[in-house]
Amino acid sequence: MDLESFLGTARRLLAVPSTADRPDELHRALDLVLDFAGGPGFTVERFESNGKPSALVYAGARRPHFRIILNAHLDVVPAPAHQFRPRLAGTRLYARGAHDMKVSALAQAQVFRELAGGLPYPIALQLVTDEEVGGRDGTLYQLEQGVSGDFVIIGEQSGLRVVTDSKGMVTANLRATGRSAHSAYQWLGDNALLKLQRSLDNTLARYPVATEEAWRTTVNVARIETPNQARNQVPALAEAWLDIRFPARDPDLDGRTAEEITAHLASFCEPGVTPVVDHVDPPHHADRNRPEVRGLQRAAGNQGYREGFLRKHGAADGRFYYQRGIDAVIFGIGGDGQHGPDEYADITTIVPYHRALREFLENPGAG
User: Fold this and answer.
1) How many domains does the chain contain in total?
2) What pLDDT does residue 295 have?
3) What is the pTM of this model?
């Protein structure tokens, strides 16, 4: 691997502000990686759902059932303009998306380009642009269009450790209704914001804000809003956004339907506050004894990295495969600061990651 040349391409990719609200930039990031991954005899299938483009690349003219799929997302969360000007400081490549997960995506694309045409079994490179906003128009949409495989490697950051478990996710809103009145005559009104606040306090008493890493259910209050426009008016409406992450075997959430989770959330709500569940995605789990999992661990260990397992608190597109009985793991480069002001990729992990992927793909059942 020519690391200097690779980093040049990585910088061009990291300079693309491929956020959900910029469809042209999503296409630009996708096209850049497709050009990088292209080779003679490769087929590129393009997909689009709700304005989010994605692609599937494989050798040959017809799509087979794949033994292995390399999955990567090219979208990023919003950031100030300076984070889309990549900078190298020592062994750290700073930029939005460097850690999550454009550098791993590009490394997957390079390995695919090098090996896909010569392996004795079919593999695919799956590139999506909507993972940060739910993944339903990328990975899930492709699965609904008949894409299938036996084993999936998602290139999310992991420091070359294998992630076999990640939390499930519930997105929900709490909607409060009250009665408007002049604020000087509070007894004539019913403040929706205060009812919402008490409901949130009840919810967070059950699920306290985590102050250190803990493998338990967490609730993030992402937004509180009201259409009220006057300081001297009692608000009649208010709403809060909740992002809930839960591990397997949580008795209140795991395996529950949206209706059952709605009823659970309602138990924390004041009269006049109604929970509305938007999406429920299950936790993700892969069989740690599967030969491919052991083979991937062995390949990372041969590069000097620990062979233990990791658990991810965030959800990833592996949950869509898990729902279909397909084992998926997360395996990516090192770094830190994803979604933050100092996000960076550790460039010392790029070459070992490339080597480990190659070794694994050349003998996926080793271990």
Assistant:
1) 2
2) 94
3) 0.84
pLDDT, one tens digit per residue, over 136-146 is 999 999 999 99
Strand order in the sheet with 344-346: 87-89, 92-94, 344-346, 335-336
Nearest CA to 49 out of 171, 136, 147, 133 is that of 136
Q: What is the distance between the alpha carbons of residues 112 and 347, in angstroms, rounded to a whole number?
A: 20
CATH value at residue 19: 3.40.630.10
Q: Is residue 227 part of a domain?
A: yes
The mean pLDDT value for 89-111 works out to 97
pLDDT at 323 over 90: no
Cα distances (angstroms) measured from residue 77 to each of 15, 16, 135, 179, 225: 13, 12, 13, 37, 22
The answer to whether residue 367 sits within a structural domain is no
Do residues 13 and 145 both lie within one domain? yes
Mean pLDDT of the chain: 95
Give the separation between CA 32 and CA 313, rounded to whole angstroms: 30
Question: pLDDT class for 366, splitting at 50, 70, 90?
Answer: low
pLDDT per residue as tens digits for the range 247-267 = 988 999 998 999 999 999 999
- Domain co-membership, 189 together with 277: yes
- Whether 250 is in a domain gets the answer yes
